[in-house]
Amino acid sequence: MARTFDDATRRNIAELCAAFARLAPADAAPTLKRAAVAIALTEGDGGSGTAFLLTRRSARLRAHSAQWALPGGRCDAGETQAEAALRELHEELGLALSERDVLGMLDDYPTRSGYLITPVVVWAGAHAAITPNPDEVASVHRIGLDAIELDGAFSFVTIPESSRRVIRFRLGGQQIHAPTAALIYQFREVLAGRSTRVAELEQPVFAWK
């Protein structure tokens, strides 16, 4: 069932984020580069409830080109995770938001490629004017929260290269992998009032570089 896009939903998600106790970064965190992504909430296509913004990265990018991703990137020197997520939202999608729009943060996720990613939940508003930067973003998609709450939306598989489970998020006929899938999965769990940890969920081998 779709969550209506209104102030009541904003308050509910803010309360769920506030009730979620983030884990402290792992001991290895000082060796990782800090990064942040935005789980930016807006109105779904055709007014179909609340959705989050998911991008397809430009094929011209040197790293992780053409992959599915939440808007975000590396933290600049002196930036907080929230500041970095908001800056990246503006640079990638033209969304000018402030820290008043931040609803909360989820657990840090360490990647195989050497980053520690902080997901920042942001309320982007119903009439957010999205202007993708073509140098970074090939396309932008509004994914309804009902899509991530479906039974079978997420699956877990094993690979020979790791003892950890690889998480996958099924979107249409495609599979989205960690780190993006792991972050979306934890957000789904927070919406259900559960404190499910995802740092040990594995990425596919192609995302290790």
From TrEMBL:
Q: Show the PROSITE patterns listed in the entry.
A: NUDIX, NUDIX_BOX
Name the InterPro entries on file.
Answer: CoAse (IPR045121), Nudix_hydrolase (IPR020476), NUDIX_hydrolase-like_dom_sf (IPR015797), NUDIX_hydrolase_CS (IPR020084), NUDIX_hydrolase_dom (IPR000086)
Q: Which CDD domains match?
A: NUDIX_CoAse_Nudt7
For this UniProt entry, the molecular function terms from Gene Ontology, in alphabetical order, are: coenzyme A diphosphatase activity; metal ion binding
Arranged from A to Z, the UniProt key words for this protein are:
Hydrolase, Magnesium, Manganese, Metal-binding
Which domain of life does the protein's organism represent?
A: Bacteria
The Nudix hydrolase domain is annotated at 32-171
| Cofactor list | Mg(2+); Mn(2+)
List the coiled-coil residues: none
What family is this protein classified in? Answer: Belongs to the Nudix hydrolase family.
This protein is called NUDIX domain-containing protein
Source organism of this protein record:
Bradyrhizobium pachyrhizi
